[in-house]
Amino acid sequence: VTRNYFENLVQALEAGLEDVHATGQAAATSSTATSSKKGGTKSKKKHAKPSSDHTDDGWPCERCTYLNPPSVDVCSICEKSRYQT
């Protein structure tokens, strides 16, 4: 399980790095970015969880907060279902 999680994490990070820089969503996908902006942590958290679970940029996982693309229904990092509570 740990190996699969790690491999998915690496793949998602490698695939998502271009998107992160292009859209400015580094705080939503990178713990380094959020830790360096301590003053904006609360506002970023609210932004990462919009009232609707579907946005143009994607949807934030409720478990790990990764911003997944709107085309997937399972988190690319932790494999939590988008609609499962």
From TrEMBL:
Name by which UniProt lists this protein: RanBP2-type domain-containing protein
Claim: Zinc is one of the keywords in the record: yes
GO MF annotations, alphabetized: zinc ion binding
RanBP2-type domain segment(s): 59-78
Compositionally biased spans, kind Low complexity: 22-38
Superkingdom of this protein's organism: Eukaryota
Keyword Zinc-finger: yes
Compositionally biased region (Basic residues): 39-49
InterPro entries: Znf_RanBP2, Znf_RanBP2_sf
Disordered as annotated region, ranges: 22-60
UniProt keywords, alphabetically: Metal-binding, Zinc, Zinc-finger
Organism field: Setaria italica (Foxtail millet)
